[in-house]
Amino acid sequence: MTSTFRTGVIKTLTIPLDGTASPGGLPQFLVRDDVLCWTRREAGLVGFGEITRFTATGPDRFLEADIWWRHLVLEANITDAVELPGTGPVAFGSFAFSKKSAHESRLIVPEIVVGVRDGSYWLTQLTFDDGELTEAGALAALERWLSGGSSAVSLASSPGDAPGSDAPSGDLPAKAGAAVVRPLPLAAGATLHTGSLSEEDWMAAVAAGVAEIQTGALEKLVLARDIVATVPTGVNAAQVLRELSARYRECWTYGVDGLVGATPEMLIQVEGRTAQARVLAGTLDRRDAHGEAGIPMEYAERVLAGSEKQRHEHEIAIQSLTSQLAPFSEAMNAHDEPFILELPNVWHLASDVKAELTEVEGHVPTCLALINALHPTAAVCGTPTLVAGALIRKLEHLDRGPYAGPVGWLDAAGNGEWGIALRGAVIEDPHTVRLYAGCGIVDGSQPEAELAETWAKFRPMLESLGINS
What we know:
9 helices
């Protein structure tokens, strides 16, 4: 099932901006609750407004979105004085985890986009109207959107030549279990409620998953759970995004239609013919390091890299991604050894994978074509995929919606960045937020430890909502 809204010939104007007027980078533009957001450190994209969107459900949602987007930009009238990944026509997207989900996957084309990359700032205006797009009109449109936010940002167009097209660094921003479940003190009258399963029922589901693994039916299973936060004073989405971008600078902070979070896991990043991914599997709650002798990183290396269970889970995730990416690649490399990714709440075992894309049926595969092949990976589903997916539906009693689905952006040139929607939540109404967290289950997983790991993974969103953990 698909639906589209306004169509026609899209027209875009991209102009450079003077970055010296905004030393705080993109996070300062997170002033509206309806902002579209993809940021890491001070760079990325933010979008305002909407000129059209595409929605779909079902197993062909990625390919249907790909076809829609390519048709939309095929005859686009593009004026681009910057020519960097993310300039020109851009769409932000969020896709349901499951092909059986009733949740609508979506691509949203904004009216205004502000981008920052390698110190270069730009502004893009997008429209279907026949009138001429001008620099003054684009700046005025941006000011109108910002003036409705909690603070105003003013940028002038950049003098002189447009920024150059220096290649990005390619850096890709490392999974965990606490031993006990800690109670969460609540601030500002907020309350927490269990979601689809109580803690006891979810731990029973983990035990059932381990039993299935021990029969040899599958190697790994990823089980998620949800909790619901009620915030009487109201949910400020813009503030949530600012908090996440400040606290979790090595993650990708995302905001699309009420889906918000900061993911440490890059499903696929495409620039030209180069694709990169960051795979995480193996987690350790940093609170477990308290009281340990020595440097905390040494503790993480010993507990994570030295754990046969954690390394086995990580290897399954790497093999899942590389085997699915191989048919689209003429060359591929990955870290021989996983590294430790240090985040404020957890440590992860992480590996970066880089591939040079090859032509398939006469053209380089698009971001969405790659996602169609890669999703769901073992990192968020399990392996074998079909067996794990069926067991997830049986044990979770939960429609994940966009949780653990791809989230990100793409442009008309085929560039894009798509993370996995982890460490996030869905804002269901002005006072209600549904948070999600999951764990990789393998032979040897302990239900109590896995439950504690979910609380460690809830922490970024709880903190951003003002709920201390």
